[in-house]
Amino acid sequence: MRIVHFSDVHIGVENYSRIDPETGFSTRLLDFLNSFDQVIDYSIHNNVELVVFCGDAYKNRDPSQTQQREFAKRIARLSNEGIPTILIVGNHDVPLVANKASSLDIYNTLDIPNIYIGNTLKTHLIPTSAGPIQILALPWIRRSNYLSKNDRTPLTPEEINFAIQESLTRAIQNETEKLDKSIPTILAGHITIGEAKTSSEISMMLGSDYLLLKSQIALPDFDYVALGHIHRHQILEESPPVVYSGSLERIDFGEENDQKGFCLVTIDPSLKQGKRIKSLEFKKVNARKFLTISITISETSSNPIADIVSNILNFTTDQSITRIKIKAPQKFRGLLTENLIRKSITNIYYLAHISIEYTHEALIHKETNQTSSNNPIELLKLFLKNQNTNHKKAQTLIDRVNKIIDEINPDEL
Predict the structure, then answer these.
(1) Does residue 342 lie in a domain region?
(2) Residue 266 needs a FRET pair 20 to 30 A away by CA distance; which of 98, 111, 155, 182 works?
(3) What pTM was estimated for this model as a whole?
(4) Are 11 and 251 in contact, with CB atoms under 8 Å apart?
């Protein structure tokens, strides 16, 4: 049984974008849809038996009609191919108001074939072409729903998080007692695990997180634990595998070096519990690249703008969202402006921003690599030497400075 596990599509993220003239869509919307298509295409062309989506279909709780349509198009392709798909509700999919429908609940209402919605903590028995499988769905829990069903005694946010953690732990244990041990079982959740390493999703979280510990979900009752919410792909446990698939697209420069993709899990239903996982592979998608270019301008540069352009040519930028960090001596302040730099660059797909840091460079003796003394004549000699000043001209300047110093009345200092 081959299973595709992915999460955090986040349709609606449109930072670093412009309007695509052919479609009228944001270029970033097209990026996210392109990565999503790669998952759907792989699932269909490789005849996988099950697709598990672990939450956050959209960036916002109230996606636009266009965003909903584009997500539905791709889910419909899986349905039409007869591939069972479970959609776990994530924190970006749930409304703030208790009892209001999530952005994924429409699929239950329409009763679309082969589509299952994990909007409550419960176990789904899903038939596949390779046999049945149990999916324990662990959606994001609304704080408002929790408070509406429990004691109204005022609680601090920390106390609410701890109470939700305890409640979820008990509920998971209760569900595992009902499982059929002869059938493969996956826990599919949208949750923060305390041991996970985070990326830029910290800046996207809607409110502070409650969390579970790895030990609370890495139970022998599960053959595989599929997780969403953390954008960085990582394996937290080997037996059973506890895995964040990570997001499909980079959100910002905090994810510049993260690999993006989905997981392919192969299970052998004929084997005993604990032995069913045959393989686990991470499949990369062709996500939009983010690139940081750091440039240092020399004190002796005769054309700092040309130096910047020359440095950029050393990188492949025609498909990257790029930012440029420049360090330059103070003497170039006023000569380097963001507008002028942008006008000089033509080979970058999207230039996010330019930062310029001006530095004060100490005079360093080339031979000894030590800072010279505070004697003004010695400093002047060192400066003239480092500037390769003509000996005769240098001596003339030194003589003039000596004369000025001699003429100064010490009482005036």
Answers:
(1) yes
(2) 111
(3) 0.82
(4) no
